[in-house]
Every structure is written in C-alpha cells, then in structure tokens.
Amino acid sequence: MASSPTDAAIALTRLGLGARPGEIDRVAPDPRGWPLDQIRPEGAPQPADDLVPSDRRMTEFLDYQAGRRQSRQARRDIAPAAAQASDPARPAPGDAEPAAMRRSARRDLAQDTAQAFLARVRLGAATDQGFAERWALFWANAITVSSVKFDSGAFIEQYEREAIRPHVFGRFEDLAVAAEQHPAMLFYLDQTRSAGPDSMAGARRNGGLNENLAREMLELHTVGADAGYTQADVTELARALTGWSVPRAQDRPTPNPARRARQAARQVQPGVNGFVFRADIHEPGARTVMGRTYAETGEIQGETILRDLARHPATAKRLSRRIAAHFTSDTPPEPLVARLEQAWTRSDGDLAQVARALIEAPETWSAQPAKFKTPYDFVVSTHRALGAPPQTIQPLRQALVAMGQPPFAPPSPEGWPDTAADWAGPDALVKRLNWARTVAETARIADVNAAAASALGDRMTDRTRLAVARAESRPEALTLLLMSPEFQRR
C-alpha cells in the first residue's frame, strides 16, 4: 500500500506515543515498516533502571509485614502498663522502634514504585519503539493492577516488567497466566485470602472462598460479561484457583524440626516471579466452568481453565474490539474489529499476528484523528515533542494527579478509561491548559514553529500553524501548540 505524506505522523501519534524532533522525517520512507519492525519475540522494551525481581521484593515485603506485626505486638504488650501510667500521653516504651521500622520500610517500597514510574515515563519519552511501548501499555491496562492497594502497589513495577512486557507479542494465554499468577494481581484481587472450605487447612481454620480474581478473570480479562457465564461459573472457577498464593513468613527456612514438619505439611510449591501454590488450601474436586468439566489436578486445574478462557472465541471478540477502540476510535470501525478477531482466531491468540493485522488494516491509517489523549499520553507526547524526558518524579506525579490519572493507580480493575467522554470535560481541559502553560514557561525551545512542524507534520492544520506563528510570545506559542486539537488527539 502506498504511503501518503501524513502516514508517518499517523504512525508516530496513533500507533506510537508521539513524534520526537526529526522522527517524522526518519519514519516517512516506510511508515508501516516502522511499527512492524517492533514486533519481536522478546516483547516490549524494558525501562532502563535496575529491576528488583519479585523474589527479592517479596523478601522486602515480608520484612515490612514482620515490622507491622512487631509494632502491633508492642502496642498490645504495653497497653496494660500505659493504662496504669500517671501520664497517658507519654510515649510507651518499646513501641517507637518497630513503628519507625515499619514506616521506613513502607517509604522505601513506595519510593521504589515512584522511581519505577519515572523510569517508565522516561522510556516512553525517549524510545524509538513507540508502537511496542503503546502495545505494552495497552495490555498492562487491559489486565490491570493498581497501587491503590499498597500490597499490590509494592509489586506493580515487577508486574509490568515480568508478566506483561515479555509476553505482549506472544500468545495471549501465556500473558494471561503470567499476569493472573503474579503477586501484584494475587494481592490486588484478594486471591491470597482465598481458601477452599473443604481443603486440608480450610477445614481446620474455617477457610473462606474469595471470588474476586475469578470474577474479574471472566468479566474483564477474558470472555466478558456477554459470554453467558453464570455466578455458578464464577464460584467454580474461584474453587479451582484456591491455592494460588504468595510466600509467607512461615515458609522461610527454619532450623526448628517441628516448624519444618509443619512447612512440609502445607505443601507449598514455588513457581515463577513469586507465585506459590498452596496445596493445603486448594479446594479438592472436579470443576465445571462454562459447560466444560476439569478433573482435579491441583495447581494445573486453575491454569487449564484460564488457558481455555484465553482461547475462547468470546475473548477474541471482546479484546479485538478493545484493541480497535484504543488505537483508532471510541466507536471503532467494524471491518477493523473483524480483521483483528480473524487474526486472533486464525493464530490461536498470537498477539504478534494481531498486532500485524492492526498495522496492515487500512482503517488504522485514516487521516482523521479520533482518539483523545489520556493525561498520560498527553504528558509523554509533550516530553517527546520537546525532546526532553522528565528528570524527577514529583512534578510528573503532581501533573498526573491534577489531570486525574495518578501514577500506577487506576481506580478499578477495569483499568483507566479510554474515551473522550472520560477525559475531555471542561474542568479536565482547564487542568491540561494550566500544565501546558507551566511547561511552556520553562521549556527550552528556540523555534516553536519548527517544533510544531516536527511534532505534527502534515497533521497540523493551517489554523494551528497560523495561531502558533502569530503568538505574542514563545510560551504562548508553545501553549497553543500543546492545546491544539491536533496535539490533543491521536
């Protein structure tokens, strides 16, 4: 298919994260080849900072939990003495140190998460693989976790880097298993609290089933609410998933023979990235989900069901529509949805083939920009247009909080919304304008007219070109560029 003069700008803004200075000219000879070359078996690029893998992060997290227990125990120990003290306001002896340790550990974990977010934005602002990055961000949002819960937030960096990015150009079922079994997801959807009532441990401690992971796995991560599953299917899947968990303090090696015997009785089977299977809390028995019966196979039972759900035709249909809506329009073209679904079904969920179908579809290259940028897209594309990645986390966090998309904190398991109705309200636009003015006052741009041409290429209208050229000051010109309809949409 022949390329038009606007195709390079479309590739970089719609399929990517925005154009950097000079990038449109570099991509122009082969706009479709640019994203196609980024579909690689190793997945999407990783941020540049050092990753603390999940097993090490789990050690830090268990230490944090131990500090919490020590603090609670210290408060219980000193409560009787405090009640008898002549000065009740005096700090209780022995309480301050565990509490201080707990606060310090929590700060360290939160700081690590903040720096991971900064590294992710810096990658987005500087990468020459903008399509691979957008594709990875799409999947991280489609099967999302959130730092709204501290426990899941402590592993959110590892989640994206271990469960999402390596799998975005592989089979969807592999991505789904890696995501659902990751500690971030197990904490976020309370799977660590689920125990089979009739399991070995559940019968002893009156264990309770938690259905959160099973429900979202069906409704949001695979087949969707329209696929015809029932509440009985949710419950059956939740029973199959019992035993999916994370390490606990009592699993740590011990020289005590009695404790070692109790550890052996718990039958904890380690997996990858901090996942463990606890056979003693797994609900025994065959399970029937969406009309198919699965024999009792322990850990494999839940995974087998998940893989079947990932390969279900309803999953292909629902996620193909979501991909089309994310990349092209809030109401995506039906021919594009059909192309993606066909590629998904034909390849048995090979996301590389789905990505190729997206890139090669003529609907993807419509000249009319229809998607309104989320605050994250707006911030990253601005840094790309200026050729200047962010340097510190605090201004970045403040900007995204003000615009309604705080770092790593989608408000629900549905992930961040992706339509103009969610982000283009009057108050939201005022906050974007305020941030654009702040950026424009400090940006080191010698020629805003050249920056506008470099950022928008042939997508820039005469109206925007004239507004930028006639601005009374350089900050005003840059503000007009950043708030222009062409820059706000992709």
Would you write up a description of this structure?
The protein is an all-alpha fold and 490 residues long. Helices cover 57% and strands 3% of the residues. The protein has 26 helices and 5 strands. Strands 1-3-2 form a 3-stranded antiparallel sheet. Strands 4-5 form a two-stranded antiparallel ribbon. α5 packs across α19, α8 runs antiparallel to α9 and α16 packs across α17. The protein is globular. The two termini are 21 Å apart.
What is this structure's SSE topology?
Elements: H1 7-15, H2 23-27, H3 33-36, H4 54-84, H5 96-126, H6 130-142, H7 150-153, H8 156-164, H9 172-180, H10 183-188, H11 200-205, H12 212-221, H13 231-241, E1 244-245, H14 257-266, E2 268-270, E3 276-278, E4 287-289, E5 292-294, H15 299-310, H16 313-327, H17 334-346, H18 351-360, H19 375-386, H20 393-402, H21 420-423, H22 426-442, H23 448-456, H24 462-469, H25 474-482, H26 485-488
Antiparallel strand pairs: 1-3, 2-3, 4-5
Helix pairs in contact: 4-5, 5-19, 8-9, 9-15, 12-13, 16-17, 17-18, 22-25, 24-25
Termini distance? 21 Å
Mean pLDDT: 91
Oligomer: single chain
| Contiguous runs where pLDDT drops below 50 for at least 5 residues | none
Write down how many β-strands occur, each being a DSSP E stretch of 2 or more residues.
Answer: 5
Number of helices: 26
Radius of gyration: 25 Å
> What is the strand content?
under 5%
Percentage of helical residues? 55-70%
Structural class: mainly alpha
- The 3D shape can be described as globular
The spatial strand order of the largest sheet comes to 1-3-2
Largest sheet: 3 strands, antiparallel
